[in-house]
Amino acid sequence: MSCLEILSVAQAWASAAEAEHHAPSITQILFPLGNFLIYAYIIKKFALPVVRDFLRSRREEILTSIQDAAESKTQAEAVVSGYQAKLAGIQREVNAIQAELRAEGEREKSKLIGEAETLAAKIREDAAFLADQEVKTARQKIRFDMAVQAESTARELLGRHLSSGDQDRLAEDFIQSIGRTR
Fold first, then answer.
1. Using one digit for the tens of pLDDT, what is the confidence trace for 30-58?
2. How many Å apart are CA 116 and CA 145, to the nearest integer?
3. Which of 116, 169, 105, 165 is nearest to 140 (CA)?
4. Are 93 and 157 in contact (CB under 8 A)?
5. What is the 3 state secondary structure string of 94-146?
6. Minimal CA–CA distance to 73: which of 65, 85, 83?
7. Where are the domains of the chain?
8. The 3-state secondary structure of the chain, one letter per residue
9. Is the pLDDT score of 127 beyond 70?
10. Is residue 107 predicted with pLDDT exceeding 70?
11. For residues 119 and 127, is the Cβ–Cβ distance under 8 A?
12. Closest C-alpha among 21, 42, 39 to residue 31
């Protein structure tokens, strides 16, 4: 097929289609076009500024939220590092107190053993029995004294180093840990 034949077939087909369908009148084209232009103008004039303002304010809110979250994160990290430093200091103090209590216990133990040896030299028959009794009593006393002293020292340290906020936080952590174990 040549180009001329193709064009003649296309023209014949278009004329047949035009014969079946009438061309729209000018009012059928202008009224919908006018309506579309009016709607487009109304949307551009009234809806777009509102949407644009909403999107801008939403963006600003999101940016503010992100900045606030970053600041909160920085503050929380500072608080955590402060608490970690305090915990490390408390552990050193606990170790020092334990060493001091051990040394004091050793001094008490040496003192009681010396007394027991003096009594053993005076009374040979009752020395073994009395020495065992004194050592048992002394150990119980030392344990009790160490426990009382450790408790009072721990209370004093906690009273000095824990604020009411720390106490609230520790109580809340304790309650949460109890809840997790269930």
1. 888 889 999 999 999 998 999 999 999 99
2. 20
3. 105
4. yes
5. HHHHHHHHHHHHHHHHHHHHHHHHHHHHHCHHHHHHHHHHHHHHHHHHHHHHH
6. 65
7. 40-181
8. CCHHHHHHHHHHHHHHHHHHCCCCCHHHHHHHHHHHHHHHHHHHHHHHHHHHHHHHHHHHHHHHHHHHHHHHHHHHHHHHHHHHHHHHHHHHHHHHHHHHHHHHHHHHHHHHHHHHHHHHHHCHHHHHHHHHHHHHHHHHHHHHHHHHHHHHHHHHHHHHHCCHHHHHHHHHHHHHHHHHHC
9. no
10. yes
11. yes
12. 39
Give the contacts of 104 (CB within 8 A, at least 6 positions apart).
Answer: 146
Hey, what are 25's tokens?
A: 């009148």
The pLDDT score that the predictor gives to residue 147 is: 84
Do 134 and 116 meet the contact criterion of CB atoms below 8 Å apart?
A: yes
**How long a stretch of residues is the chain?**
182
Q: Rounded CA gap, 123 and 128, in Å?
A: 9
Closest Cα to residue 146, out of 113, 88, 107?
107
Whole-number Å distance between alpha carbons of 100 and 106: 10
* pLDDT, position 70: 92
